């Protein structure tokens, strides 16, 4: 843990030394021109850190820390509170370097992630409902046993993450801007240091979900400040406060901080999956979501790198996220229409949906609680369309034929449904 009375401002020398340490222990991920660039006014490149062995850039920082402090860590062991990326990364590199790792995961952690950590010889402890609960437990164990508490704001972790910035400049020397998702801020701080040293004209932006704006609040206050953690699709960015070392490194040097709406994070997940053929989680695509939302008009026509930080999403959550993304894009429509309660009612509706080239995904009829005439039933329908324009045309057609039709806009948290 860092000295509470001191902060460490990361230097490029730290990052360069880390690059030498982890050279043979991590994957040098590709920097790909995004196919979505052809549909936008931006020249977008994706730094695909989701292609690391355990699916996130966290590996770089963990590897550097484990190598730099190998003897100490082998003696004491490491305890890691995490909701995903740090846990699986520490388990993997701990096994390869002979370091005993204990991961502390919240109750809501997907069972598959806990199983993967266990398969990599890590001790798995499930504790608490939130990351904060798991962190408090890990701190207690650290004090009682002397196990080293892995902190994402650790200078060695930060230095390892800075190799992402070094690789970006090496792979695309003409880069104009880099957008980095922000959790504790360690990745953003490290990439900022590397880019400022290797190409001082390169802009560096941070991006976070607007529901948990811890870095934006810190920048406004001039120091790290706690914010409530609200559930959202960018779960991997959900920390209540940014790191002191990270903020000290960033302060006064960051070009812009961006707050991204959750609906655009959902859209970005769909875009990366369908257009780029990559699986990434909500945290990982936050940088691209900022571009899709139109938050960076000044970068039009410029070579912009979006760091895709991770792809650790379990199958069930990915399925839910896809449906929410389709809804956010306007490609899944839910509506209710009154139909004649006879054989032609549903037949006519099905024909209209087919004629409009939409795909019916769900249909449920309601007869018991209908308050209109006994000859009417209501059909609750979900259809999939090609894009937003197709959706609008479909809605116009349904409203023309069924003036009483009601369309619903699904809230991303599934807490309410607006008519």
Write a structural description.
- The longest helix has 15 residues, at 131-145.
- The N and C termini lie far apart (50 Å).
- This protein has 16 helices and 15 strands.
- The chain has helices at residues 12-22, 58-68, 70-76, 85-97, 111-119, 131-145, 155-161, 163-171, 186-198, 214-221, 244-250, 262-274, 286-292, 315-328, 343-355, 388-401, and strands spanning 31-33, 43-48, 78-81, 101-105, 123-126, 148-149, 177-181, 203-209, 256-260, 303-308, 332-340, 359-366, 376-384, 406-410, 417-418.
- A 6-stranded mixed β-sheet has the order 1-2-10-7-8-9, with helices on both faces. A 5-stranded antiparallel β-sheet has the order 12-13-11-14-15.
- It is an alpha/beta fold and 419 residues long.
- The model is unreliable at 411-419 (pLDDT under 50).
- It comes from Parnassius mnemosyne.
- It holds the Pfam family PALP.
- Keywords: Lyase, Pyridoxal phosphate.
- Its cofactor is pyridoxal 5'-phosphate.
- Residues 22-310 form the Tryptophan synthase beta chain-like PALP domain.
């Amino acid at each position: 843990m860092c000295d509470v009375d001191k902060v460490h401002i990361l230097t490029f020398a730290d990052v360069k030394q880390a690059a030498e340490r982890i050279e043979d222990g991590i994957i040098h991920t590709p920097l790909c021109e995004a196919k979505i660039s052809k549909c936008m006014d931006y020249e977008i490149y994706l730094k695909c850190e989701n292609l690391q062995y355990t699916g996130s850039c966290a590996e770089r920082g963990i590897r550097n820390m484990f190598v730099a402090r190998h003897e100490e860590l082998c003696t004491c062991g490491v305890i890691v509170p995490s909701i995903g990326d740090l846990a699986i990364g520490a388990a993997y590199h701990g096994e390869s370097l002979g370091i005993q790792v204990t991961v502390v995961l919240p109750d809501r952690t997907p069972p598959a992630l806990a199983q993967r950590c266990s398969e990599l010889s890590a001790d798995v402890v499930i504790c608490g409902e939130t990351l904060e609960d798991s962190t408090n437990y890990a701190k207690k164990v650290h004090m009682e046993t002397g196990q080293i508490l892995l902190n994402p704001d650790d200078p060695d972790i930060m230095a390892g993450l800075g190799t992402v910035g070094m690789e970006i400049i090496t792979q695309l020397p003409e880069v104009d801007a880099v957008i980095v998702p922000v959790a504790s801020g360690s990745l953003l701080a490290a990439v900022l240091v590397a880019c400022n040293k290797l190409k001082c004209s390169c802009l560096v932006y941070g991006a976070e979900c607007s529901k948990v704006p811890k870095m934006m609040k810190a920048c406004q206050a001039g120091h790290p400040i706690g914010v409530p953690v609200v559930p959202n699709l960018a779960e991997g960015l959900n920390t209540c406060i940014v790191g002191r070392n990270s903020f000290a490194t960033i302060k006064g040097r960051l070009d812009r901080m961006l707050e991204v709406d959750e609906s655009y994070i959902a859209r970005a997940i769909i875009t990366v999956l369908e257009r780029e053929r990559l699986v990434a989680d909500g945290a990982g695509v936050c940088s691209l979501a900022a571009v899709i939302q139109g938050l960076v008009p000044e970068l039009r026509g410029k070579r912009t790198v979006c760091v895709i930080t991770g792809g650790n999403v379990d199958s069930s959550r990915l399925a839910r996220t896809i449906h929410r993304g389709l809804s956010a894009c306007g490609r899944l429509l839910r509506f209710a229409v009154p139909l004649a309660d006879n054989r032609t009612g549903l037949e006519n509706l099905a024909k209209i949906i087919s004629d409009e080239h939409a795909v019916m995904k769900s249909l449920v009829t309601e007869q018991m609680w209908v308050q209109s005439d006994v000859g009417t039933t209501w059909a609750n329908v979900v259809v999939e369309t090609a894009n937003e324009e197709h959706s609008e045309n479909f809605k116009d057609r349904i409203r023309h034929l069924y003036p009483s039709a009601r369309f619903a806009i699904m809230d991303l948290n599934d807490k309410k449904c607006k008519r």
